[in-house]
Design a protein that fits this description.
The chain has 658 residues and is α+β, with helices and mostly antiparallel strands. It is built from 18 helices and 16 strands.
Amino acid sequence: MAVSSRSHRKQIVLFLLAVILPSLVLVVFTLRMISQERELAQKRMVDERHRLGSEIGQHLLVRLEKIKLQESSAAANWTQLSAQRDYVNPEVVLIGLVEGDRILLPWEENKKSEEFRRLLNSSNFSRKIQLAEKEEFVKKDFLRASELYRQTMNAAKEPVQRGYARLLLARALAKAGRNKEALSHYRRILALPSRVTDEYGIPLSLYAAGLLLDAGVEHGEVLECIRAELKAKRWLSPAEFYRLQEVVERLVKTAPEESIKDTAKDYQRMINEHILKLEQALELQGDFQKIAFAAKQGNQGERNEPVWISYGEIPWLVSLAPPLAGAQPLLFVVNAKDIHASLRQDSGFSETFPGEFHFVAGESSEGESLGPNFRGLKISFAESEGTALSKQWNFQRSFYLLALLLVLSVTLFGAYLLWRDVLRDVRMAEMRSQFVSSVSHELKTPLTAIRMFAETLRLGRSKDLKTQAEYLDTIVSESQRLTRLLNNVLDFSKIEQGKRIYRLEPTSLSEIIQASARAMKYPLSQKGFELKVYVEEGLPAVRVDQDALEQAILNLLNNAMKYSGESHEIDLRLQRRDDKALIQVSDRGVGIGPREQKRIFEKFYRVSMPENERIVGTGLGLTLVSHIVKAHGGNIEVESTPGKGSTFSICLPLGSKQ
């Protein structure tokens, strides 16, 4: 047994090595392959993003240079740099003239402003205004000052002079307490066009707008004035912007109607956005020398490649354009967000580059380079070919993992089946070994008794006829026991080979019960057992194999005798249950647990209990009983409680259904 156990352990170890080692090699190989594929996919992703960045940069450069060429051609016809001028392309933020080492912003060269400044500072007009202001501010004679302002207004020949004098007149009238008349003049000033400004370039209408709001009147007219001012000019001077911002904030606070207030808030947001652009334009003007230097550095090559530089937080793309014949050089500023939107609206570009992307400004490491023509601007892909490669890699990885899982599952399932067979063979070998040992023991016991009593009779040691008869009965009983054991083994062998044949004939079950009781009478009496037989009368004959059924009953009685424990009472019953005949064998012994009851009919199986270790058995008795009963179209039932005994019931159909 020890040698066999060691042999089985070696087989199990070899089996585990044969299954686990190839599986581990397969897992390592697959993980290594996945790792290599991942590295290749990442490299392809990086290369693809570099390629996309370079190609999109070329498209962007072509678009920007086209804008530059169009705007340069249009600028050749300019007579002056005007803040009111609309550019050919909506992506253009501003175009500034380059004068030496500085740029001239749109509002800085305005001949109208210079002309208004000259008219307001003319000697005749200026002298009259100074006389009136002396009366107003020095002598505090507001009525005399208003009269002088009126005379100056009436004598003025230019609209800007009349408007300026009217503004001062309204101020003096307000100080003199003639508010109604002052408001009338403010209303007329509010109606002046935005091109009528003071020497600082601020429209006179904005001064009147603020004063009217202070008086709590003309909110709608002031709103219309603001709208016209924003619509008329693309760029406002810093002084005009901040004055406009002040008027709008006052309108938001004092407007009586919610509709006016909501519109004013919209204008307020627009003005704030314009102010951010204005402040960035002023910063650009201050940093122009650095930008010009970077642009020139980019143009030093033989090909004279154009350079676009990212500037500011908005961000802007800035580039210098060489001057056309007889013209000044220009600085072009394009809004990066607007040019991005313009590219996305181009159907040809969208078909070539369907993925989502956005521009990244600054020196951030995020994003891909757009090429040497762009400084401080990169591109970041939200959904691109690179992401598609990532999805493809994820699909490949999932495929590899699923394939590995499938192979391992099949391998492990096959290993499980093989492992189950190995364990079954091991258990079967152990049970066969136990069966051989048990059969040898059971054969030895009756043979020893037969030999002992036969030798005693042959030597004539017992002269008493009664004693001799008992010896002969013992020899016969042990012979019958030996015969039953051999029959069990032979029948089991036939069952295993499928050669067991049953001859069914109409037979009285009562006679089989009585014959079984007579066969067990002597061995039961020898061990002090009492067998009680109960037979219900009137049962019809049943088609059965008499010898086989008697063998099944004897096996049940033999088991009852083995496992009765301290109790020595066994019951054998025959009765009707509905349309079936019921043969029951009951004992009051050790009993069987619920979990064990499902396995006791398996071949070679014996209940593992301390009480059973001393009881010799082959583990075939109940297996034969089950096969015999099923061959007769019946079934066997067991009811048992540990410590209280067991009842085995053979149920056979009555009548001719078989």
